[in-house]
Amino acid sequence: MEDTIFTKIIRREIPAEIVYEDDRTIAFLDIAPVSPGHTLVVPKTAVRNVFETDESTWLAVMSTVRKIAPAVRDAVEAKGVHINSNHEPEAGQDVFHLHVHIIPRKSHEEFSFWPKQDIDSSRTKEIAERIRELL
C-alpha cells in the first residue's frame, strides 16, 4: 500500500496533534476539521478500508473510538459526537488508509442528515434477500 498522510503521521514524518496512541491505533486532530475537536482514529497497520481490513484491526480501531469519544466530546463541551467512516471514493473516502472520524456536535442544527428516499417494500425485500445470499 502506498504512503498516505496517515502513514507519515504514524512514522512522525509530519507533525500532528496526537491525542491517543496504543500499540495498534493512533488518534489525532483533523487538519481540516468539520468542528473543533474533530479527531481521526486510524490503525497503525496500513489498510485501505473496511473491505480490506481484518476483524482484529477493525475491532482495535473501534475500541479506540469508544475509548476516546467521551474525551473528544467533553474537551470542546459538545453534546454528542458524529462517528463516521467512508469507504471508497464514491462514499467520500479521500485518504486511502482506514480511518474513523469523531466529530463533536453542539447542536442538532450543525449536522444535516442524509436525504431520505422512498423505496417500494418489494424492492426492500429484494435487497434484503440479496444481502442474505451474499453472506
Keywords:
135 residues; alpha+beta; five-stranded antiparallel β-sheet; 5 strands; globular
Structure description:
- With 135 residues, this protein is α+β, with helices and mostly antiparallel strands.
- Helix content is 30%, strand content 19%.
- It has three helices and five strands.
- The protein has a five-stranded antiparallel β-sheet, with helices on one face.
**Helix-strand topology string:** HEEEHEEH
Percent of residues in β-strands: 15-25%
**How much is the average pLDDT?**
93
The value of Rg in angstroms is 17 Å
Number of strands: 5
Name the shape in a single word.
Answer: globular
Taking the sheet with the most strands, its summary is: 5 strands, antiparallel
Give the strand line-up of the largest sheet: 1-2-3-5-4
Write the layout of secondary structure elements.
Layout: H1 5-10, E1 18-21, E2 25-29, E3 39-43, H2 55-75, E4 80-84, E5 100-105, H3 121-134
Antiparallel strand pairs: 1-2, 2-3, 3-5, 4-5
Would you kindly provide a brief summary of this structure?
By secondary structure, this protein is an alpha+beta fold. The chain contains three helices and five strands; from the N terminus they run H-E-E-E-H-E-E-H.
